[in-house]
């Protein structure tokens, strides 16, 4: 029952935060200098009659709160408006581009979790030259921005070697997997280095705990000590990073999708920002915020189950 109350409270907090985010996202159009109608025209001149038609179509003459509540009601029903640039419903654009982004983020997340945890484990357990090599490698990975990694990977594996396509999203599962391999690596590289270093340092710290020393003194096999008493205690810290990892992936998709011409929502956000297609910008921004908050909610619900030291309702460690 305590867990249920905690979950309901977190869902309510998420809904309130998402509501506040929607207000900020919608209000950003009115914080920009100039008349919102001028942005809708994208700099083109218009007659007074055309300007009047635009104001009536987008209800720009209505009070701000009335406009916001109308837009919010449409969003709740899945209607994000109509794209100014593409002349099509925004929900249709999102539906056609979201699968590529989700596939890219899922592939990158898999690489981050598997490789990052493995490198951190190996560095902490083996030490010596192996640990030093992993530290150097992860330092280089952390110091390489996603767009730089994208350019390097394209130049080597697409242009020079011709192993992977340099652009596009592909069709079908196999085609998408092949086209999104390089973008996923470019997207994951920085986070692999960061997760590996955090895992390594957390495991090294756990190895010095008293219960680990006691387990070793009782003759518990080293592999079992590492698995049960060291690595398991690091999962709470790693899981806490889940929100940061996913938020970084979602943000960096804009750069990576643009570099590789991936037909996803990151590229759509970049193009729509350039062309001042505000209905699309608002929808994509709200979608990214919602995805990020959903991941944080899942992390909060899983954390007490993974780490018993974490009490419900807080991320802190109980005394």
Automatic annotation (TrEMBL):
<feature type="transmembrane region" description="Helical">
    <location>
        <begin position="238"/>
        <end position="260"/>
    </location>
</feature>
<feature type="transmembrane region" description="Helical">
    <location>
        <begin position="12"/>
        <end position="32"/>
    </location>
</feature>
<feature type="transmembrane region" description="Helical">
    <location>
        <begin position="102"/>
        <end position="122"/>
    </location>
</feature>
<dbReference type="Pfam" id="PF19300">
    <property type="entry name" value="BPD_transp_1_N"/>
</dbReference>
<comment type="similarity">
    <text>Belongs to the binding-protein-dependent transport system permease family.</text>
</comment>
<keyword id="KW-1003">Cell membrane</keyword>
<protein>
    <submittedName>
        <fullName>Peptide/nickel transport system permease protein</fullName>
    </submittedName>
</protein>
<dbReference type="InterPro" id="IPR035906">
    <property type="entry name" value="MetI-like_sf"/>
</dbReference>
<dbReference type="Pfam" id="PF00528">
    <property type="entry name" value="BPD_transp_1"/>
</dbReference>
<dbReference type="InterPro" id="IPR045621">
    <property type="entry name" value="BPD_transp_1_N"/>
</dbReference>
<feature type="transmembrane region" description="Helical">
    <location>
        <begin position="134"/>
        <end position="157"/>
    </location>
</feature>
<dbReference type="GO" id="GO:0005886">
    <property type="term" value="C:plasma membrane"/>
</dbReference>
<feature type="transmembrane region" description="Helical">
    <location>
        <begin position="280"/>
        <end position="303"/>
    </location>
</feature>
<keyword id="KW-0813">Transport</keyword>
<feature type="domain" description="ABC transmembrane type-1">
    <location>
        <begin position="98"/>
        <end position="299"/>
    </location>
</feature>
<keyword id="KW-0472">Membrane</keyword>
<dbReference type="InterPro" id="IPR000515">
    <property type="entry name" value="MetI-like"/>
</dbReference>
<dbReference type="GO" id="GO:0071916">
    <property type="term" value="F:dipeptide transmembrane transporter activity"/>
</dbReference>
<keyword id="KW-0812">Transmembrane</keyword>
<keyword id="KW-1133">Transmembrane helix</keyword>
<feature type="transmembrane region" description="Helical">
    <location>
        <begin position="177"/>
        <end position="198"/>
    </location>
</feature>
């Amino acid at each position: 029952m305590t867990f249920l109350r905690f979950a309901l409270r977190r869902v309510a907090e998420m809904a309130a935060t998402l509501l506040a985010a929607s207000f900020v996202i919608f209000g950003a159009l009115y914080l920009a200098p100039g008349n919102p109608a001028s942005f809708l025209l994208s700099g083109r001149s218009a007659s007074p009659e055309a300007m009047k038609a635009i104001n009536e179509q987008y209800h720009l003459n209505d009070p701000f709160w009335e406009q916001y509540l109308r837009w919010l009601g449409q969003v709740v029903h899945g209607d994000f408006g109509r794209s100014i640039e593409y002349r099509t419903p925004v929900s249709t654009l999102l539906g056609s581009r979201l699968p590529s982004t989700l596939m890219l983020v899922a592939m990158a997340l898999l690489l981050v979790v598997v490789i990052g945890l493995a490198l951190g484990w190996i560095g902490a357990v083996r030490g010596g030259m192996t640990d030093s090599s992993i530290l150097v490698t992860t330092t280089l990975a952390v110091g390489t921005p996603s767009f730089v990694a994208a350019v390097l990977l394209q130049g080597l594996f697409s242009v020079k070697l011709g192993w992977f396509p340099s652009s596009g999203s592909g069709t079908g599962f196999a085609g998408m997997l092949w086209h999104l391999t390089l973008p996923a690596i470019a997207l994951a590289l920085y986070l692999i280095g960061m997760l590996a270093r955090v895992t390594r340092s957390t495991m090294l710290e756990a190895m010095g705990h008293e219960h680990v020393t006691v387990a070793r003194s009782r003759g518990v096999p080293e592999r079992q000590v590492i698995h049960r008493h060291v690595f398991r205690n690091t999962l709470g810290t790693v899981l806490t990073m889940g929100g940061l990892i996913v938020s970084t992936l979602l943000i960096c998709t804009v750069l990576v999708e643009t570099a590789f011409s991936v037909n996803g929502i990151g590229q759509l956000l970049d193009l729509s920002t350039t062309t001042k297609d505000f209905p699309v910008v608002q929808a994509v921004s709200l979608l990214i915020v919602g995805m990020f908050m959903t991941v944080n909610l899942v992390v909060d619900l899983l954390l007490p189950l993974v780490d018993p030291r974490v009490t419900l309702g807080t991320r802190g460690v109980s005394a």
